[in-house]
Amino acid sequence: MKACGLIVEYNPFHNGHVYHLESSKKKTNADCVVAVMSGNFLQRGEPAILDKWHRAEAALQTGVDLVVELPYVFAVQHADLFAKGAILTLDALQVDTVCFGSEQGDITPFHNAYSHFKQNEGNFTYQLQIGLKEGLSFPEASRRAYEQINLTTNELNLSQPNNILGFSYVKSIFDLKTSLKPETIQRTKSQYHDEEIENQIASATSIRREIISSKNLSEKAKSAIPLSTYHAFLTYLEKTSVLHHWEHYFTLLQHTVWTLDLETLRTIHGMEEGLEYRLKKTVNHAESFQHWMELLKTKRYTWTRLQRMFVHLLTMTTKLEMESIHMLKSIPYIRILGMNEKGRQYINERKKNLDIPLVSKLQQFDHPYLTIEERANHSYYLAVEAKKRARVKNRDIEAPIILN
Amino acid sequence: MKACGLIVEYNPFHNGHVYHLESSKKKTNADCVVAVMSGNFLQRGEPAILDKWHRAEAALQTGVDLVVELPYVFAVQHADLFAKGAILTLDALQVDTVCFGSEQGDITPFHNAYSHFKQNEGNFTYQLQIGLKEGLSFPEASRRAYEQINLTTNELNLSQPNNILGFSYVKSIFDLKTSLKPETIQRTKSQYHDEEIENQIASATSIRREIISSKNLSEKAKSAIPLSTYHAFLTYLEKTSVLHHWEHYFTLLQHTVWTLDLETLRTIHGMEEGLEYRLKKTVNHAESFQHWMELLKTKRYTWTRLQRMFVHLLTMTTKLEMESIHMLKSIPYIRILGMNEKGRQYINERKKNLDIPLVSKLQQFDHPYLTIEERANHSYYLAVEAKKRARVKNRDIEAPIILN
């Protein structure tokens, strides 16, 4: 079976994702689609609107054949580490191609850009360091460094978000010496960060905003998501009465900042350059999570970076726990969230060449990353009222979703 | 001016306290009544229903002349340490007598009991250790040790709660070689733990229960409290919409237990004999604070002891931070919560002989106990919605209440 790998967050799974899925399948001529998906916390440092089980199920019902979880330690990270975790996972699962959406839409410029990048990597790294020292944020410093080595004016513009992400995948594929073949499809016109739903292909941001602000699955929201996602929302709401967003975790974060000392705060991943002092200074004045973010934000501390730090603070994930991911040359295990019959066949076919554990039940395997995963889940589900919590939370210790 | 000292919690200040106040004044022939009161967390390990400022104000308006705060490190402790902190405070303030309510009502048996106790202290300590080793709770082991040295059958029955508390005061007064004179008045018939309001002198427990369960200041509740307390409730509710109880802190505690490791949990004061394992084991099943307590409670872990541990966990107060109080021979500072004109005169009169700082504004003084106090306040006010919080919380950095 020929498999195409997708790197996704599905927050939530929407029509743009359906398009990505179908186009990728066609472009790569794949029999089977494997998605590696963030869990309950996302790359940009946010709790997912629905938990990973309900997001995975919606994707499986609309054509993805196998969904595996990108470990927290890779998911809540900047683009390069996020890409590393995802590529290592797809490589371990022996998919043939990795197909991502980009503004560019053609893979050749990515290949050329990679060659050019490798020839200028020394200069790039140097320029990046200068930018960071000047106080630029990581994305801004990267953008400027790419510009310095002529990767924003050439055939591939690395100042566009999905080109950057795609280029991270390509870099990982080659730097990690995998046998994966990168492929890309052009994204439809809806922009990554669009705030309002304009047509049937809308950004995840606009869909979440519409649903959370209208407190309802309006016709507008329904028009932008497949039926399986609509059902996932209804089911999740019926079970928990909650759609997760940052404000649910505000009091927990205040408590943490107030009761932990500076030394302990400093052990948290993402707590850099005296951010712990800023947290202590601002916590008294914040009237909401949004307000706190506004008080904290500076040119150097970008929104995304602050949010990621808050996820790690909420889950108490330390720098020490994160250290090992830089050294990793392969993913230590694969956690299956769900599959259909084709996905199951694919797994059976590739299992014999798989030299790492396939975790389908948490109790069967022990790993420091799973300890972090457990804390992340505990924290995530605190947004759900205690009496309703067990029903969704216990899903995590059960077997994967099997679709017939 | 002759001053009488009272040791109180006023949770809330009720008619029984008014009776205690007036009778004590009469019995000791005092010009001025000084109360040392627990702050926002109480001896039995509970958040106070109203914050310390509103409780202090109610007491001042109904006849107490000066209210000072018993530091958290002494307040949320078993009877002996609670007594030590309160007696050291009243001794530093140079009051003449300390008058407590007891089932007994006559001070002579307390004197006799103290003499008898000192003669048998070795045996008492030995019996206490045996009881504790057998797995009895501290109160139960104490009760049995008192019984062994004949202090429960004699003229003073040390198995009754207010006699025990009173005896702790007497012990502290003499053991700490203060010049305070102990005095007692008989408690009226309402029992310490009565759960329902039966008459105008009702237990604080029954009053809190009535108010919290009826979500209202019912006529029944009003009949058991002075007008000043009624107004304190109205004012506090108007500002915060909250009357504090443990369920407000349930999610914060779950988060703490889920995200901290066993080693960190073990540093918390009151985390003894593997309680951290029990917490980790039960946290998943608890549907409310009450439910969690029921899951945790055993013969050895009494309700009060568990609640105190939860207060320290909520405020992240460690064993290390508490260590120094055992060595203390005097109180390190006095925090004034409020006074009327007579209280102010009294303070002025005694100030010249006072060799420790009188803290009326927090910014003027720095002490490790005040750092703990600050954390305790932060945690306490988390029950109040963020937007309303500053209004009550900032009271803590302002000047004391001055009543004219």
Automatic annotation (TrEMBL), chains A, B:
Q: Which InterPro entries match?
A: Rossmann-like_a/b/a_fold, tRNA(Met)_cyd_acetate_ligase
| A GO cellular component annotation in the UniProt record | cytoplasm
- Give an example GO molecular function: ATP binding
Its GO biological process annotations read:
tRNA modification
Residues noted as binding ATP in the record, renumbered to the chain: 7-20, 101, 162, 187
Q: Which EC number(s) are documented for this chain?
A: 6.3.4.-
> What name has this protein been given in UniProt?
tRNA(Met) cytidine acetate ligase
Tell me what organism the protein belongs to: Salirhabdus euzebyi
